[in-house]
Amino acid sequence: MAHIILVTSFKGGVGKSTVSANLALKLARLGQKVLLCDLDFDLGTLDLITGCEDRMLFDVCDAVYGRRDVEDCAVTFPSVPGLYLLGAPFRCTDEIVPEDFAEKLSAICEPYDYAVLDTPGADSVTVAVGARCADSAIVVATHNPTSLRGAEKTAQRLRDVDLPCRLVINNFDAVSVSEDKRTGMISMIDATKTPLLGVVPYDRTLMFAQEKGVLADGDSFPSSKAFENIAQRLIAEKTGGRPVPVLSGVIGRKRKKVLTK
């Protein structure tokens, strides 16, 4: 059965879609069959981030409500076997009943090893859908204090519905932390009251590549190893394997300082 992962935060602009897309990529690269699903019905961007906007003819609502077969709706990636995308509708005209939508979406996800559900930056009806069918959640945050407050609120809401959640720190600026300009990891974990799953370093290369629909696939991206670490940790938890250390190959110099500040 698929392990369904909700990627969320009630604060927008923290990089949920970036984390969702690149985590799905790395899971697929590690041999998993992965469904990446865009539940941001207000401003879905996964088709742009993955560079397949011209190939997305149908969307997740078409699949959920049976207007088209899932095979017709899911975009494939010839260069990444095992990765599939269900995009968000350009304009959603369906009445979304969370219980019904979640049940049907869960059935769609079942043939996959993992399903990654990307959500909008708000406490929306599609977040409720994702929380109903997810097995676990990733809460994304950055150094920004409003982002940390949003992550804390999000994690608390998920715990209220008994959904296990962990923190992914995105765009972590180790240089600024070592210079006492930004918050360190321990302080961020304390602020969000959420256990840490992974740390993604600030990646200027990915920021520009993403505008062209290119993901962090390869050594030219500083964030690539971080996304791979997160994927490996998730697989190890599911299979009983040995987990990869959070910062392995991600932050080398002054690791203790950026961790403990």
What topology emerges from the helices and strands here?
Blueprint: E1 3-8, H1 16-29, E2 34-38, H2 46-49, H3 60-64, H4 70-73, E3 75-76, E4 83-86, H5 98-109, E5 114-118, H6 125-133, E6 136-141, H7 145-160, E7 165-172, H8 174-178, H9 185-192, E8 196-201, H10 204-210, H11 224-239, H12 255-260
Helix pairs in contact: 1-11, 5-6
Please tell me about this protein's structure:
This protein has 261 residues and is of the alpha/beta class. The chain has one domain (3-260): P-loop containing nucleotide triphosphate hydrolases (Rossmann fold), CATH 3.40.50.300. It has helices at 16-29, 46-49, 60-64, 70-73, 98-109, 125-133, 145-160, 174-178, 185-192, 204-210, 224-239, 255-260, and strands at 3-8, 34-38, 75-76, 83-86, 114-118, 136-141, 165-172, 196-201. An eight-stranded mixed sheet has the order 3-4-2-5-1-6-7-8, with helices on both faces. Strand 6 (136-141), helix 7 (145-160) and strand 7 (165-172) form a beta-alpha-beta unit. Helix 1 crosses helix 11 and helix 5 packs across helix 6. It starts with a strand and ends with a helix.
CATH superfamily: P-loop containing nucleotide triphosphate hydrolases
- Strand portion: 15-25%
Rough shape? globular
Number of separate helices: 12
- CATH fold description: Rossmann fold
Précis, in short:
This protein has 261 residues and is of the alpha/beta class. It has 12 helices and 8 strands.
